[in-house]
Amino acid sequence: MNTLLILLAGGGLAFLVWFGRWVGKTMAYAFCNATVSARESKIISGARLAELVDAPEFKAILPDLEERGLGVRTAADGGIDWMETERTIHESLCREFSEILEIVPGEVRPVVRRLVGYREMINLKIIVTGLHEGARRDEIISRLVPCPTETQQRFELLASAQSVEGLLEFLKGSEYHGVLAGAIEDYRKLGLRALIS
Question: Does residue 64 contact residue 80 with C-beta atoms inside 8 Å?
């Protein structure tokens, strides 16, 4: 009788542990899905995007940008500061990606991180292009876009390389080192397109 009670208690405890883990995992996905759905509701539909592209004036787009919290920045002369507006949109997108990365359940986080990591590639291409052109470090840094998967300081460090070959030293141990090292001979022969294509 005691053995039966112990087995029932053990089985009940095992079931409760399994159920608790299942609920925890399910809730993480449900919360993530709800957050992504809320973000999707702010996305401009394809039809609306086509209308905005065909708009005769930029002013027709302003209400849609304002509604999504992507306000247009004005310059001192009262016109639109395009560079600052673009930066604001990039920063907003980066914040949203960061928020989504924080709530994505652990086992799928690396996959999602990889998907939004394309901004790392954009910044690496900007750095490589700047180094190739001989641009100053601060000029390269001003071109960088916000990235949710890597810090701005890391990109600033990479931008301080003196050449594309010097960039290899900074990238040692990263996934990009092998790719760049493998293409460096082609870069010497063909130029920049060997690295950024």
Answer: no
Q: Return d(Cα 104, Cα 117) in angstroms, integer.
A: 15
pLDDT of 139:
92
- On the CB side of 182, how many CA atoms lie within 13 Å of its CA? 6
With contact defined as beta carbons under 8 Å apart, do 94 and 126 qualify? no
> Which two structure tokens, joined as six digits, stand for 187?
């870069």
Instruction: Using DSSP, state whether 98 is helix, strand or coil.
Output: helix
User: Where in the chain are the domains?
Assistant: 57-115, 118-196
pLDDT per position as a tens digit, 120-143? 888 888 998 998 898 899 999 988
- DSSP letters along 164-175, please? HHHHHHHTTTSH
pLDDT in tens, 28-57: 555 556 666 666 556 666 776 677 677 777
Query: What is the full DSSP assignment across 21-81?
Result: HHHHHHHHHHHHHHHHHHHHTTSPPHHHHHHHHT-SSGGGTHHHHHHTT-PPPB-TTSSB-
Whether the Cβ atoms of residue 128 and residue 195 lie closer than 8 Å to each other: yes
For residues 141 and 126, what is the distance between their CA atoms, to the nearest angstrom?
9
